[in-house]
Amino acid sequence: MARPDLKTAVRLAKQSHTTSAPVTVWNVHGSKIGAYLVHLLRQPGYRATLHAVSGGTYYGTASISRAKVQIALQGWGPDFPAPSTFFLPVLSCQAFNQDPTNSLNYAEYCNPRLDTLAGQAQAEQLTDPAAARKLWARVDRIVTDDAAWVAVVDESSAVFVSARAGNYQESPGIRAPARPDLDPLTAPNNPKSATTQSPESAERPFGRS
Question: CB 3.0 to 4.6 Å from 100: which of 65, 94, 142, 190, for a disulfide?
Fold first, then answer.
């Protein structure tokens, strides 16, 4: 992982002529990540401030386009372990245009070219998964370069089960037991303990211009 380069960040921020504009970071009361983002934004010269609100106000406001939330945090996890679940609900044009007053596309990101690539990837998935993966990789690269979302936290978890448990399986989508077998008489090769780890989606801030 590349180390932060503050000198280059300051130079690029000045070249963009954007540091004079105020930047408000929305945050839920009690969360420290918002204050950390404000600290990071101030280093290259941005006039960043923190706006802390209740959870209900936060999520009720961030999904409304007319509220003009500039930067806020949002976590996302797939309901099914497929690339499409990380793009279509939160980064496609349809995700925003369908209902701008209540959208999961908090960044209001819309790139028709990307929607076309995503459609091609979904079609290829049925007949040529390898080709589909290459298309989804292109989608991922474009979204990353456009910085509609910026990854901040990527969590993993460990689940400990009893020595009497066997054949424990965890859903990769919702991090919950998929098929626990708690019968010590039928569980083959019962371990004394077992752990599983599964990644959760990154908690990441979205930005609106």
Answer: 65
